[in-house]
Amino acid sequence: MERHESRVRSYARSFPDVFTSAKNEVLRSADGTEYLDFLAGAGTLNYGHNPEPVKQLLIDYLQNDGLTHGLDLVTAAKADFLDAFSRYVLAPRGLDHRVQFASPSGTNAVEAALKLARLTTGRAPVVAFGGGFHGVSTGALAATGSAHYKQGLYGTLPTTVHLPYPDSPLGAFDSLDLLRRLVEDPSAGIEKPAAVLVETVQGEGGVYVASDAFLRGLREFCDRHGILLIVDDIQAGCGRTGAFFSFERAGIVPDLVTLSKAIGGYGLPMAVVLIKPEHDIWLPGQHNGTFRGNQLAFVAAAAVLRHYWADGTEGAFVRDVRAKGAAAREHLAPLAARHGIAVRGLGLMLGLDFTRAAAGVTAAEVSRACFEEGLIVETCGRADEVLKLLPPLTVTDENLRRGLDTVVRVVDRLAARDAEAVTA
Ligand code: PLP
């Protein structure tokens, strides 16, 4: 791999093994080692690896020579997905957004949403937040915060104004007040923005959660000024935070929503923008792409919607996600108290922040040691200071406990090592 694959590879460096098969929350490597997967495709495998309710449907679809590629032609698979999405996701939440299929990565959905906001308002600047991650293609990269992805490219990126997120390593901040001063003061020095792009829970930035009050305030502010509110729900959506959309808890309706990762149901590539009808001003084909019609993803996506989401906004699946999230926090609370670790998050999107960990243990070494003990869990944050737990939402209670026990054991062991070193 070192010889043939580009230096740009990333997860492969953190989790160096050769993986051969996977089921639900368990990954297997070539030598038979089993890992619990609390990375889950960086939030893509919300229903686990190879979920049974979908697998046979995909096999049948292939067996019957269903289309696999369809540009944006009307196909039975796409029509079925749109029917299921409208029936089980949009309608129960009182949403009438249209669905735009983008090229199948999150960054392209963000790209489309930003373009559309600029087209519909006739203005160029976009407001995004420090710590936000929205992808790495040019338009989305401009909105991403991290210097790691932007180094050497700043001068090539479209106009974006970054505000501090309401919570960050530097503490709480009144982002709305700053936004108000920038937009309402004609001498503030910026053009009125086309849109505000926000993650309601920052995934890559360190699992910071925006409050309901902030989200409601942002919605009201955008309404007052004719600015579009775009929620990037690529990582936090599809049930991750304990509701289908991560913004439901605030009772707001964004103008545009981006979804990718778990929407494809089976880890299959798919990305969409949800558009309030009045903003759907695209010319036919204006934002196109060869791979906007991944038919297998449509089949899988429709199947998981029917299986997990057919019983309303407060159905069994989201109640289970919330219960598991609460159980995980309870499980980790004594460890956090012992070592001065901050626990943040919502549902099954949890972060352990080691910035002030008493024993000098770092999230990066915890991630490495967990891997050696059969748990795959990644880091995030400005300097990899946060351990991010993203198990499949379908993880069994037993394997959730086992994974968390591994984290507890590893942190305690590393802390004891550091304490011994200090004593010596
Ligand atoms: N937006 C958010 C919130 C994300 O977490 C990600 C990926 O992690 C993206 C956008 C970009 O998605 P992709 O990597 O599929 O381009």
TrEMBL record:
Keywords: Aminotransferase, Pyridoxal phosphate, Transferase. Gene3D superfamilies: Aspartate Aminotransferase, domain 1, Type I PLP-dependent aspartate aminotransferase-like (Major domain). It is an enzyme of class 2 (transferase). PROSITE patterns: AA_TRANSFER_CLASS_3. CDD domains: OAT_like. GO terms for molecular function: diaminobutyrate-2-oxoglutarate transaminase activity; pyridoxal phosphate binding. InterPro entries: Aminotrans_3, Aminotrans_3_PPA_site, Dat, PyrdxlP-dep_Trfase, PyrdxlP-dep_Trfase_major, PyrdxlP-dep_Trfase_small. It holds the Pfam family Aminotran_3. Pathway: Amine and polyamine biosynthesis; ectoine biosynthesis; L-ectoine from L-aspartate 4-semialdehyde: step 1/3. Its EC number is 2.6.1.76. Its cofactor is pyridoxal 5'-phosphate. Belongs to the class-III pyridoxal-phosphate-dependent aminotransferase family. This is Diaminobutyrate--2-oxoglutarate transaminase. It comes from Streptomyces termitum. The gene is ectB.
